[in-house]
Amino acid sequence: MRLKTVSRLALVAAATAAVLGAAPSFAQPVDTARIEAGGANDWLTYHGSYKSYHYSALSEINTSNVKDLSVAWIHVPGHSTRGLQSMPLVADGVLYYTGSYSRVFALDGATGKLLWSYFPELDDALVARQTHSPYNRGLAMGEGKVYVGTVDGRLIALDMKTGKVAWDTKLQDSQKLTVGFTGAPLYAKGKVVIGSQGGEWPGRGPIYGVDAASGKMVWTFNTVAGTEDAKATWGNDSWRTGGGGGWMPGTYDSATNVVWWGTANPAPLYDWSGPDYKTKGARPGDNLYTTSVIALDVDSGQLKFYHQELPHDTWDFDSSPGEFVSIDRDGKQYMVHPNKSGFIFVYDRKNAKVENVWPLVHAINFVKTIDPKTGELIGRRDFTEGKVTGDPLCPHISGGVSWNSGSYNPGTGLYYKLGQEWCMTLTVQKTTPVTEPQVQLNIGADFKIAAPPGGEIYGHLDARDPLTGEKKWEVRFPEPPMASIMSTGGNLVFVPDSRGTVHAFNASTGEELWNHSDGVGHQGGIVSYSAGGKQYIAVVAGFGGMVSDDFAPTFGEPYKSMPRDEGVLVVYSLK
Question: Which overall architecture, per CATH, does domain 223-402+405-463 show?
Answer without folding.
Answer: 8 Propeller (2.140)
